[in-house]
Amino acid sequence: MTPAIEVRDLRRIFNVRQGLFAPPRQVRAVDGVSFAVPPGSVLGVVGESGCGKSTLARMILGLLPPTSGEVLVDGQRLSAMDRKARARLIQPVFQDPFSSLNPRRRVQDIVAMPLVAQGDIDRATVARRVAEALERAGLSAEQGGRFPSQLSGGQRQRVAIARALVLRPRIVICDEPTSALDVSVQAQILNLLDELRRDLGLTYLFISHNLAVVEHVASEVAVMYLGRIVERQESEALFANPRHPYTQALLASVLTPEPGLGVPDVGLGDIMPDPANVPPGCRFHPRCPKVFAPCATEVPRPTTSAAGLVECHLEG
Amino acid sequence: MTALLEVQDLRVTFGGTAAVRGASLAVRKGETHCLVGESGCGKSVTSLAIMGLLARGGQREASALRFAGQEIGGLDERAMSRLRGDRMAMIFQEPMTSLNPAYTVGSQMTEVLRRHRGATRAQAVDRAAELLGRVGITAPGLRLGQFPHQLSGGLRQRVMIAMALMCDPELLIADEPTTALDVTVQAQILRLLAGLQRDLGLGILLITHDLGVVARIADRVSVMYAGEVVESAPTAELFAHPRHPYTRGLLACVPVPGKVKRGDPLGSIPGVVPRIPPGFAGCAFRDRCDYAHAACTGPIPRHQAGPGHEVLCTLDLAA
């Protein structure tokens, strides 16, 4: 079966100037990422801020050209597709519904925009499909006539979801879709996304820093660290048996609502990852609690097995 | 034992909007009291009202507002500013906006001690370096000369904590101190706060929306909804026997690895937090509550559900 999303050795380097006369430094935001997402499934991408997960999302959406490597959506090269065809296939839902919606347009016009941009759809069809998308996202026709400022955070995120669905895409890239929302609203939105995926056969790339959320929605999870996927496994296997020390530390940091357990010591130390200054050898070694001889000098090779992928000297 | 901070029937209004509608809570020495709720429930306004830091137009009323046995409700701005940063300190969610970008870490930290204690520059610098070390910052001398933008988010929050500790406060109010941080850094900062509390006997009022944080760090929890404390209990008791329908709904919303199967819906609370007009009577949660009945529009009794466990509800839902 053709994967819904396939990414081959994707890289993106930003040249950043720190001062007027300082030489530009290279930030390797995404540094050789490959994976395939089967249709109808959800790939969760987790990692700390600065690990490159949003850069990855923007490249898959075609909003940012890769420095090298390839993105295939539904078996077709993204770089060979025109914008309209791309929009029909793949749509985003972003984190902050306060800044991703035009405050001066009514909800129904915001949702209609992707259809109107296609250029060849008549007004009656636009109106019908907007109404359909609003209903799917759990919004009333009356709410369609409002402005985003008249809606709550959860309702605004529903508008963003309706806009993503109006072209009936196959793939939706969700970049921290619930991070700006309260927990009760987060639960509503997660339930809605899951229902839509099952009803419409959607494929999601689901980016989040909240592992508990990812565990709930994703069928497979990729853990990113400084631009690389350091571990990828089926969701259940990853949460039951994390193999990379970084995954283990991330899982240990999740504070579940269980009183009496205290706050765990994750043992990562105080060094913060800096994508402009990637350490030699294993890029995680300065923070790794299990660091040993080869880590500082040798780059670990990814070991792939039936259980998934791990990039660590302790494996294989 | 008398409480370090005692708030009784706190009310805050902004023009026609009631932000806090009769909240009571107490923080003892050496205790972490978590104030938990969703956005707009009044938890941040409560903390600002305690510190006397309400924005212009905010009106505060309370039948008691006592700090270390002293009534501070009637203190003027001068007297409050002598207390703030000295015996009661505060840290905020986003350290980048609460640190001054134009001054070095050192000059901002030393100002606190020089102003409140009249310390010399050298004494203040020594104290600042000592505290930066205490909050786990290596090379404090280097950090003192740096500007906030040169530090990572986790380091900035450590600086904020160190700054709050400059005058050995008795009470620390922390408003979402780890919300803007990565989970790995959050764990480090929370461990740091817990360690400081143990060593210094601080009373901490921690404001958060994250029930995971609450469960792991609080001694006592107060759940706020629409400007009221709807339930208050020792942490273990609250999580084991939540009585208020809102508390129960909130707990069901949190995804916990291994608890809800993938594909099964999470619990959720329908609707949104309502705006409360002045003169509103009854339970503010009734429109979203599965158990709502006629009595919910009348006065709501606050009853005891166990030792130290108070619930604001017409029903006595069994555990």
Molecular structure report:
The complex is a heterodimer of chains A (316) and B (319). Chain A is 31% helix and 23% strand. With 316 residues, chain A is of the alpha/beta class. Chain A has a single domain (5-311), classed as Rossmann fold. In chain A, helix 3 runs parallel beside helix 6 (153-165). Chain A is globular and about 65 Å long. Chain B has helices at 43-51, 77-83, 95-98, 105-117, 121-134, 140-144, 153-164, 183-200, 211-217, 235-240, 245-253; strands spanning 5-14, 17-27, 32-36, 58-61, 64-67, 70-71, 88-91, 171-175, 203-208, 220-225, 228-234, 302-306, 309-312. Chain B starts with a strand and ends in a 7-residue tail after the last strand. Chain B is built from eleven helices and 13 strands. In chain B, the strands form two sheets. Chain B has an eight-stranded mixed β-sheet, sandwiched between helices. In chain B, strands 1, 2, 4, 5 and 6 form a five-stranded antiparallel β-sheet that branches. The chains are: A alpha/beta (316), B alpha/beta (319). At the A-B interface, helix 6, helix 7, helix 8, helix 9 and helix 10 of A face helix 7, helix 8, helix 9, helix 10 and helix 11 of B.
Explain briefly what this protein structure is:
The complex is a heterodimer of chains A (316) and B (319). Chain A has helices spanning 53-60, 83-89, 107-118, 123-136, 141-144, 153-165, 183-200, 211-217, 235-240, 245-253, and strands at 5-16, 25-37, 42-46, 68-73, 76-77, 90-93, 171-175, 203-207, 220-225, 228-234, 302-305, 308-311.
